[in-house]
């Protein structure tokens, strides 16, 4: 007997998750809802195993075994809390909430329950990135000197998304922050970030930047370098480099890497470039959802590829994003403890 899984939010990523879940052997049925009735109708017409719920409350009361939250960010905190109250295992897309303080409040409530809550940082389930983590854990690289994570979007998101995203650090770079923190199993202690705007003036109008670089100082001495931009017309470029005292490894350097190699005697990369995160990380999303469903069916199940992102992990990532935002605003390095001190009432 397979699972009945609820999906709240059927936009770009929610619709993709619905398709992925339907293809999993552990899932028998979907219950779906969205603020836009047309999105619900489109999904139930496309997927024979999907039935509609009128709203999130109806979905929580429909007998679902688990829920995937892929709705707009401002709804995440309330929906996570409703799922906890209903005792339903939950996978919620990042972030937990719009603000660090609200995220901390949700994390405190999650800590008081046995209901499992996973936050959707899918790169942990990318096969090459998981292999890099295994190599680091095994000591194959010696001590880690530098880790570099790159996310280059092919084009900016829609204007309404930019205005409500919370900025490039909270929306885009958080994936890189989670990846390097998870990879090293170490904490960031200081953040320095800088950014610029050369494209659409809307970014500056909403207090954001369209390109940024971030230096992360880790507790054990590793330096993290994160690069992000909204403008990379050649394709969606997401890769990881890990440099150690005895070896170096990379992930994301594949035949579809969207770069033009200027070495005359080298044909790499030879394939059509990745165009978007959903084709680049299709396998990672599938593995993430499969691991989530497996854990719902058997809570003792250990993921075979990677450990999922906990609510606590996601809060630590939010602290890094908040420090990067403050660093750009002030032009100085920002200690993580400076941001954590803001959360004293919520601890």
UniProtKB/TrEMBL annotation:
What is the name attached to this protein's record? Answer: Gfo/Idh/MocA family oxidoreductase
- The superkingdom of the source organism is Bacteria
Give the keywords, sorted. Oxidoreductase
Q: Does the keyword Oxidoreductase apply?
A: yes
At the highest ranks, the source species' classification is:
Bacteria, Bacillati, Actinomycetota, Actinomycetes, Mycobacteriales
Q: Which residues form a coiled coil?
A: none
Q: Which family does it belong to?
A: Belongs to the Gfo/Idh/MocA family.
The Gfo/Idh/MocA-like oxidoreductase N-terminal domain sits at: 4-121
Chain ranges of the GFO/IDH/MocA-like oxidoreductase domain: 130-249
């Amino acid at each position: 007997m397979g699972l009945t899984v609820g999906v709240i939010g059927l936009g770009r990523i929610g619709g993709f998750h619905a398709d992925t879940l339907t293809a999993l052997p552990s899932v028998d049925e979907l219950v779906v809802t969205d603020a836009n009735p047309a999105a619900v109708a489109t999904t139930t017409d496309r997927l024979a195993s999907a039935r509609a719920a009128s709203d999130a409350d109806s979905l929580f009361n429909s007998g679902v075994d688990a829920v995937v939250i892929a709705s707009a960010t401002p709804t995440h905190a309330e929906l996570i809390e409703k799922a906890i109250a209903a005792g339903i295992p939950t996978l919620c897309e990042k972030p937990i909430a719009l603000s660090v303080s609200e995220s901390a409040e949700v994390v405190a409530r999650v800590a008081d329950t046995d209901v499992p809550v996973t936050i959707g940082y899918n790169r942990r389930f990318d096969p090459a990135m998981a292999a890099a983590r295994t190599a680091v854990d095994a000591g194959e690289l010696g001590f880690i000197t530098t880790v570099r994570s790159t996310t280059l979007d092919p084009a900016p998101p829609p204007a309404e998304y930019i205005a409500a995203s919370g900025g490039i650090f909270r929306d885009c770079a958080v994936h890189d922050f989670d990846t390097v923190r998870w990879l090293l199993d170490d904490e960031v202690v200081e953040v320095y970030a800088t950014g610029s705007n050369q494209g659409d003036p809307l970014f500056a109008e909403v207090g954001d930047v369209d390109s940024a670089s971030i230096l992360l100082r880790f507790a054990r001495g590793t330096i993290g370098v994160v690069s992000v931009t909204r403008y990379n017309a050649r394709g969606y470029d997401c890769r990881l480099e890990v440099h150690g005292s005895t070896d170096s490894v990379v992930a994301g350097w594949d035949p579809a890497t969207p770069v033009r190699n200027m070495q005359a005697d080298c044909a790499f990369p030879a394939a059509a470039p990745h165009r978007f995160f959903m084709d680049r990380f299709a396998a990672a999303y599938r593995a993430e959802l499969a691991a989530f469903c497996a854990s719902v069916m058997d809570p003792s199940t250990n993921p075979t590829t990677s450990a999922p992102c906990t609510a606590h992990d996601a809060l630590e990532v939010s602290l890094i994003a908040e420090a990067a935002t403050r660093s750009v605003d002030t032009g100085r390095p920002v200690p993580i403890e400076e941001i954590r001190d803001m959360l004293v009432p919520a601890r």
